[in-house]
Request: fold
Amino acid sequence: MLQRRPLPSVVRFTQILAPLARLKHYSAVISLNRKMGLIGIASNVYTLTIIINCYCHLNQTGYALSVLGQFFKLGLQPNVTTFNTLIHGFVLRNRVADAARLFSKMVEGGHCQPDVFTFNTLIKGFCMIGNNRAAIQLLGKMEERGCEANIVTYNTIIDSLCKDTLVDQALDLFSELIGRGIAPNVVTYNSLIDGVCKLGKWKEAKRLLNEMVSQGIFPDVLTFTILVDALCKEGMVVEAKSVVEMMIQRHVGPDIITYNSLMDGYCLRGETDEAKQVFDLMVRKGSMVNVRSCNILINGYCKGKKVDKAYKIFKEMHRMELVPDTVTYNTLIDGLCKAGRIQEAEELFSEMQGCGQFPDRQTYNIILDGLCNNQQLSTALELLREIEGNKLELDIVVYNIIIEGLCKTGDMDSAIDVFSGLSSKGIQPNVRTYNIMSHGFCKGGLSSEAEKLLREMGEKGCSPDGWTYNIIIRGLLNNNEASKAMRLIQKMVELGFSADASTMELIVGLLSKENVDPALLPLLENSLSC
Reply:
């Protein structure tokens, strides 16, 4: 076409660009448009809108905006589709603030009036970032501007409110759409049922289910899956299984998500044999098992200390042409570590890296914890140095594991070195770090050092918790420093914390001693009454 003389009109070229864009050949469309410009074919509104769409899908919203500038240079007036395309592009890239600014310019500039698609796109953006208030305000502006909201508008906001457990507001909005004569659909009811189920409002879920059926809206696979998942999370697996059976009776085929939810429910109750039966059913149905299915069962077996069975599922994944992901490896490594099979865990850790699955922070936490709990501190410290050398971003959890491992073996000097080096790494100790160190000091009879840490916590804005006080109080009592312990008990009670069972046992033991200081008796009795 570019060689033909006379040249075809821009309309003919646009008729080629549009289907190319629909086929996602975005770069080719942009390239062709450039060639059109070079031979003197001027773009029109439709051509430039297509180019904006292509740039948005290529995550090049800056170029998309520059194309909007070309409209004015060419004396063209962007239409509502142009603005909708650009606003949608911003929302796709989670740049909701930019989308909102463009919407404001569109309205204030009087270029064209936003339509229902414009409002729905921006409402979706606000809901994506959790700004339900802005979404509801925009719904109000639709009415002000004479633009009628549709079921998509309401479904978007209702779903977002339900996801944020603001179910009462969602139900109010549901009543509003009914009052406006807008017919709810299965999507509306699915969002509401999901919301009430998450709050454990089973009667309300049943009412909504009956209501949708009475309205001629039949539950789909998602409706039933929502119910199965919610019931399983509440430990009501028998009821969840009944829902699956009802699905089959109604010829609504359970999908992979339904079965995964049911398996997870069984595993949460420790009923791995039943979970395996569901897994086997999925295998028989063909291509219904995915990596998540295997991860659920592996996790169930590991939690039930059936690591060999978990390992068997892991091996079966290769036969089923499923590639284990980081979650798979993390779960199985953790199971092996907790079973004391640290060498196998290390081998699996190496295999993971060899297969191109990069360990994440959780992987390192698991393997370091396993090494520390299996008296392999030198290997753990070596791995920590390797991780630090690889410049992987670490958090306080990793260091807490190492510090605790050192404290458990009584190597307080090394624990102090790691603890002291945290600030130079830009990592702040948390309350758990201080509790680990305090426990280590108290265990070694150094309760005064633990008291220093308590003061340091206050200075550094890290609030002590009940564990902190109980650890130090026990340290002081075990160190025969009863008067100090009593003062700390008083402070603990003032802050709303209470003595735990181990601390209480020591206090009761102190009361039974014949040589207890009489001055301490009132304090001891008060601590017991708290």
Observations:
- The CA atoms of residues 112 and 465 lie 59 Å apart.
- The chain has a mean pLDDT of 89.
- Residues 96-109 form the longest helix (14 residues).
